[in-house]
């Protein structure tokens, strides 16, 4: 089994999302000791935001690329290849200002690439990333699961589905900024992770 482990938090030490995503990866490795893990830490090693050159590269023929377009396309394809080669994708995603970190958004903008991870058809767009399991550790300081202010996991659900990733599991730890709730919230999620069972096809 090939795991792609993506951390997105800008906080390196003491990050709840990093801790939970690591626990998920460790659980999978415990169940599947021969697993290979690729780490993509976009919080520590930030992916540049897409530029004009990136957009041009996405929609022009490779023969027309200038140096900047070629560089942008190469980065995008290397990130896409990591996803394609994975069987399971594990993400740690904290909530920043009601949404996902900009580090993750920049990453997504590079992998959501027409004719590579999705395509347009007469019936509408079709996702090209199939037969992969996605597991996301969501962390929040407050309580937003049933709030219209939550633009975190609803956005990720929409994005994953658009790319063809329909097998998605979320582990959500909320109210982590509230001392009376944080410890229990984390413990509940950690117990749920211990029950995680993935069957390798």
CATH superfamily: Flavodoxin domain
Low-confidence segments, given as residue ranges, are none
Spatially, the strands of the biggest sheet line up as 2-1-3-6-7
- What's the CATH class, please? Alpha Beta
What's the gyration radius in Å?
Answer: 17 Å
Content of β-strand: 15-25%
Note down, in words, how this protein is organized.
- The mean pLDDT is 95.
- The protein is of the alpha/beta class and 201 residues long.
- β1, α1 (16-31) and β2 form a beta-alpha-beta unit.
- The strands form 2 sheets. A 5-stranded parallel beta sheet has the order 2-1-3-6-7, with helices on both faces. It has a two-stranded antiparallel ribbon with strand order 4-5.
- The chain has helices spanning 16-31, 52-59, 67-85, 102-111, 153-162, 179-194; strands spanning 2-7, 36-41, 88-94, 118-121, 124-127, 133-139, 167-173.
- The chain has a single domain, classed as 3-Layer(aba) Sandwich (Rossmann fold), CATH 3.40.50.
- It has 6 helices and 7 strands.
- α1 (16-31) packs parallel to α6 and α2 (52-59) crosses α3 (67-85).
- The longest helix has 19 residues, at 67-85.
